[in-house]
Amino acid sequence: MPLSLFRPVRFIHLRQRLQQDLLGSLLILMSSLAFADLPTMEAPSRGEGTGLIETIKNYAYDGGILLGLLIALLAFLGVAWHSLTVYADVQNQRKTWKDLGAVVGVGALLVVVIIWFLTKAAAIL
């Protein structure tokens, strides 16, 4: 018989293995006690509808409204950025205050018209 079978059991290794097993089983048991619920999805603004297709259409409507808001935001930011660059040119005496007034006036009118068109488009959806 080989001598490895008659080697004495090392209690230190056995105790470490037992501690690891105990710790692992405690972690498994403790993790099963946490019952966290996922948040529920909100219904679309026009309601869930009577079927799946109508619910998808209502979510698409909300997506279209969000896209319109993003377009209006980009238009406003574009006008603001251009107005700031013209203001910088006025400060550097490359443009006049009339140029800045024209840019701000036309930009404000442009943003109002874009918001008006988006409102009309939302009514069509």
Give a description of the structure.
The N and C termini lie far apart (86 Å). This protein has three helices and no strands. The protein is elongated. It is an all-alpha fold and 125 residues long. The chain has helices at residues 11-31, 52-91, 97-124. The protein has a domain at 52-124. The model has no long low-confidence stretch (mean pLDDT 85). Keywords: Membrane, Transmembrane, Transmembrane helix. This is TIGR03745 family integrating conjugative element membrane protein. The chain crosses the membrane at residues 65-88, 100-119.
For the structure shown, list the relevant keywords.
single chain, 125 residues, mainly alpha, 71% helix, 0% strand
Task: Put the structure in a nutshell.
Helix content is 71%, strand content 0%.
Average pLDDT: 85
Q: Nearest-angstrom radius of gyration?
A: 34 Å
Helix content: over 70%
- Strand fraction: under 5%
Question: What shape does the CA trace take?
Answer: elongated
SSE string? HHH
- Strand elements, count: 0
Q: What is the terminal-to-terminal distance?
A: 86 Å
Q: Can you tell me the residue ranges where pLDDT is under 50 for at least 5 consecutive residues?
A: none
User: What is the helix tally?
Assistant: 3
Main structural class: mainly alpha
Largest sheet: none
Write the layout of secondary structure elements.
Elements lengths: L10 H21 L20 H40 L5 H28 L1
Helix pairs in contact: 2-3
Protein name: TIGR03745 family integrating conjugative element membrane protein
Keywords: Membrane, Transmembrane, Transmembrane helix
Pfam families: DUF2976
